[in-house]
Design a protein that fits this description.
Blueprint lengths: L2 H25 L3 H22 L4 H24 L4 H23 L7 H6 L9 E4 L2 E5 H19 L1 H9 L1 H6 L4 H18 L5 H17 L5 H26 L3 H19 L5 H14 L1
Antiparallel strand pairs: 1-2
Helix pairs in contact: 1-6, 1-9, 1-10, 1-11, 2-3, 2-4, 2-9, 2-10, 3-4, 3-9, 6-9, 10-11, 10-12, 11-12
Length: about 290
Amino acid sequence: MSYEGWILLTGALVGITCGIVGCFLILRKMAMLADAISHTVLLGIVGAFLVSHSMAGVPMFIGAIIVGLLTAFFVQLLDSLRVQSDAAIGVVFTSLFALGVILLSLFASRVHLDVDHALMGEIAFVPWDTLEIFGKEMGPKAVWMLGFVLLADLAVILLFYKELKITSFDPQMAAALGIPVLLIHYLLMGMLSITTVASFDSVGAILVVAMLIVPGAAAYLLTDRLSVMLVLSAAIGALSAVFGYYLAVWFNVSISGMMAAAAGGLFAVVFIFSPKHGLIAKWAANRKISRYS
């Protein structure tokens, strides 16, 4: 595959993986928790390096999952103690992220791991960091990692689709039916954590937030069915990556930044032209009501 093809594939995988996970965050009104976890996993990455002295993917995944679950746990704990949800997210987010930055500065300043690398990423370098098996290049490591995470996320969604759906729409009913609401919540947080850390080397944590929230928010305006929302969100995420890449080449700007901007542009189009929830549809409905009132 060509250099351009690997970048497009990586961006599409990020958009699809983040898009399907983001749908459940949108439905649970937990979109900003994605921002918190996408930053606090830096602590997990630094911790994994300090323990294993390795930049390998497995320790990073484990560290990210642990800190991602800790973030969700601390937010849930503060929320149960009657701290407002947005304040709880802000306190946990800033504290754990700051701790990660401090540890990074103290113990890993000479390692190829820094805040800019973790938060911004550079998808243009992805095709050069390849996986070799028995001396044969198998393609970029980021593609393999994102592909594995996508398959893992799809497996979890297929196995626990009913539980994820009910707990997202009506957690009280789910609890009454005997569904372990808290366990499903932490399962989703684990998915969010590994999805975030898998995207670090491609688009970076800050831009992962765009892919986690914007495609799901756009899909939410287009359908009332979860299954359709998942497909639409994945499609919008992939299209954002493709459009963003070609626009970035055209204007000679940041590829990752333009991918996020393209996602915002697609959301704006949906927000205006959505058949049911768009501005034009609402304007037409209000005009019709005023005409007959």
